[in-house]
Amino acid sequence: MARSKRAVLFTPKGGGGIVKKSKIALKPYLDTIAEHCSTLSNQELRDILLCLARDVPTSGRVNFLEKIESYLPGRRPAAIPDTDAVEQILYGIEALRESIQERISSIEDGSYWDDLDVWGDDGYYEEEPDSISEDQDEELGAFFDDVERLFLDERLEDARKVYEALFNLIHDIKKEAYFSPPDEIDIREARARYCRCVFETANRDKRLDDFTGAMEIDVSNPYNENEYDEDYPLMQDVIDAKPGELEDLKSFLPAWKKALTKRGTKGRPAGLLLEAVHRLEGINGVSRLAKKWENDQPQGYLFWLDILKKENDQKRIISVSKEGLKALKEGKPRERVARFMIDAAEELNDAHHILLGKRERFFSCMSDQNLLDLVDEATDQDKRDNELDTVIRFFEARK
What is the pTM of this model? Predict the structure, then answer.
């Protein structure tokens, strides 16, 4: 796995919705490349490959060349771990667990400071130590590299075992100390690949229970249980984790929906349920849930609006946004609904709903920036005094 720094893992799209921005999963990635290649001649492909080769830094040229040579006809691809090596990986993960636990314990009981190497030359230390050292971070990343090779070589049974050991390790670390995966690990995609392994290797009579456990459907956002935790995959991420269809998905979905329905309206199961209902019932099913949940789970309206945005149905976005603004209470979700209205109204050059959207965005989240945007818009529409009167009445009504 190429390991490079990244600034953002997932970023909300426009006004809201659960949308991945800075990453692309394997299946759509390969499909896009295949589509590009299908339109090119041999000479054009050769020219593109040479351009890519020129962009490789000097230090990476040998590795780049070896990688190409390993896929030439008659040549075997890069070696992956054999069965014995997989056992060694599992032993290595267990050894890493012990090493991390020892470090955490030494920090907690103070014995960490008995090691003179942690003190500076002047006899002081500059900051509190991390629960996991840089070397341990790198070792963890190397294990994710190993399991990715297993996954991409279709050794799903082996990959499942290693992924399970890695995520159990992370789960246990989080119970004892603060932990954030290294930037080099795309933790959401790794979880999606693990879930794909479970779905494809589980016995049919155990698939629902095994898959439900792997998807960790009861995990909540640590700061707001109604929000979706972006470190965990949707079903679409599992589908996109590798090329090829997810066998038996259609017959699996009704039982999946039933299992999610029992979990109530917390963030993760609600987001997964909206996705499942959309697949089974279409947008009408999503709108039914949004109206049923209202402010109990604002994801309903945000998911509904995101579908309409993908369909480029600006008029319907405005209509649903108005409904959502009535149903939701002040807060970030309602602010995102207002953002959907603003974006749609701007597409339609609908000045009335642009102003309404900016007013409701301010009423949803009373920040200086939202107020400035509202006043600027009202000034542009020559309605500044009227709008300020509306704002004053809003505050008076809150007393």
Answer: 0.78
